[in-house]
Specification:
Helices cover 28% and strands 25% of the residues. It is of the alpha+beta class. It has a single domain, classed as Aminopeptidase (3-Layer(aba) Sandwich), CATH 3.40.630. Strands 1, 2, 3, 4, 5, 6, 7, 8 and 9 form a nine-stranded mixed beta sheet that branches. Strand 1 and strand 2 (19-23) form a beta hairpin. The radius of gyration is 17 Å and the shape is globular. It starts with 7 loop residues before the first strand and ends in an 8-residue tail after the last helix.
Length: 210
């Protein structure tokens, strides 16, 4: 599948100052920026930057960032599902996974995460895709936010729901391992019926649960 990408940008005010939200950002541009040390939910910031540079270089890879000058303070990633995950078994060229969304702690509270998603879906080509997100509570910053896992789940539902993502049932073992975990997805307006049906089938591996 050909993966066209349309760049979009937006400047937003936050309590920590104005931020530029932009993307999809090419890999060479990402490599030239600096990542905030607080972007460490998945790995230390320098290694996270390396991972995002690699994703941006993929044909389907999309990275949208929030930055203050040359300092990246937030990002969201889109790429094909990991080959080890069940979602890749559908073999859908129009299925992308929202792999991660993260905002450095000093820049939270200004709606940055929602704006990262909003700019992502300003690209009309995203309507050609099913975009899924697997939400696991152990990736959430419960310690610093000081809210319950259930309140955090509602926050994530609202953030993802702001661009039309919905909660879908699944029998995926990791998602089912805790009731706060969830599968969310956005089915683009131009996705064909066959792709939608294949996505719905892959949500379950036990036939009687369909």
């Amino acid at each position: 599948m050909y993966h066209p990408k349309t760049y979009a940008t937006q400047t937003i005010p936050t309590p920590a100052g104005d931020l530029v939200i932009e993307g999809p950002v090419p890999s060479d541009r990402l490599a030239a920026l600096t990542f905030h040390e607080g972007l460490k939910a998945f790995r230390p910031a320098p290694r996270q930057q390396e991972a995002l540079v690699e994703i941006a270089a993929l044909p389907e890879g999309r990275i949208v960032i929030a930055r203050s000058g040359d300092l990246v303070v937030g990002y969201v990633t889109y790429l094909y599902p990991d080959p080890m995950e069940r979602w890749s078994e559908a073999k859908l060229p129009n299925l992308l996974e929202l792999g991660a969304i993260e905002v450095a702690a000093p820049y939270r509270g200004g709606g940055v995460a929602k704006h990262l998603l909003h700019v992502s879906f300003l690209d009309d080509y995203m309507n050609d895709y099913i975009v899924l997100s697997t939400e696991y509570y152990w990736h959430w910053d419960l310690e610093n936010t000081q809210i319950s896992v259930w309140d955090y789940k509602e926050v994530m539902k609202k953030i993802m729901g702001s661009v039309g993502m919905e909660v879908y049932a699944t029998d995926d073992p990791e998602i089912c391992s805790h009731p706060a975990n969830m599968l969310m997805a956005r089915i683009g307006s131009r996705v064909d019926i066959d792709s939608v049906e294949r996505f719905h089938k892959i949500r379950f591996t036990t036939r009687h649960m369909l």
